[in-house]
Automatic annotation (TrEMBL):
GO cellular component annotations of the record: plasma membrane
Membrane topology field: Multi-pass membrane protein
Top enzyme class: transferase
Protein name: Adenosylcobinamide-GDP ribazoletransferase
Domain of life: Bacteria
Organism: Mucilaginibacter frigoritolerans
Amino acid sequence: MKKEVRIFFTALMFFTRIPCPKWVDHSEEYLNKSSRYFPMVGILVGSISALFFYGFQFILPKEIALLLSMAASILTTGAFHEDGFADVCDGFGGGWTKEKILLIMKDSRLGTYGVIGIGLMLLLKWTSLNYLPTETIVITLIAGHAISRLNAVSLIFTDEYAREDDTSKTKPLATKMSTGGLAFAIITGLLPLLLFATVYVWITLVPLLLVRWYFSGYFKKWIGGYTGDCLGAVQQVSEVVFYLSLLVIFKYAN
């Protein structure tokens, strides 16, 4: 049990800025095992975001409460996934070879593709949440953060890590995942869907699997696999696709 607690805290330290015990580090062994806890960390991040929305909706307009909830999740993760999405926009937008794409993604500076991409992504995220029924947003935030991380982390199980040299960034990355770890991630990633009142919410798995299939093939084609930035991009896109899918479901399936 103590070992599992350490593995969980490794995931928490890896994915968020939430303070962790000093005895937690970025051990490669624990980091790879911690990948199964990524959706659980998503539940925690989503809960923090949902708590901000729930509290502020009583004293501020819904639109502002949503912005504050998004800001809370970004501060909690240190814009970890947003940074990855922006780097992917820059890398694949400006690079035409594997070496060039990886080099651009390594660069800490933000380019035109990244600025436009992350701006549109955040706007689309806020707009889609704003159009959802207010009474569903708390559950939606929790579920969206969990299931989007499941979609991203599942690539670790099926795909190859694209960087095998010193071109990788200094921040660590889990590059292995066991079958048992994947099963645990699937259970925790899908668990928040049970909170919805409608069974039609499970339809969202179809577009999410399409997102996973597309990006897996796209990354393999251009760089031979995934990087940490690629996982961040898949998480961001999956989160927005989940929200958009719910919009369609609530409009036509109820």
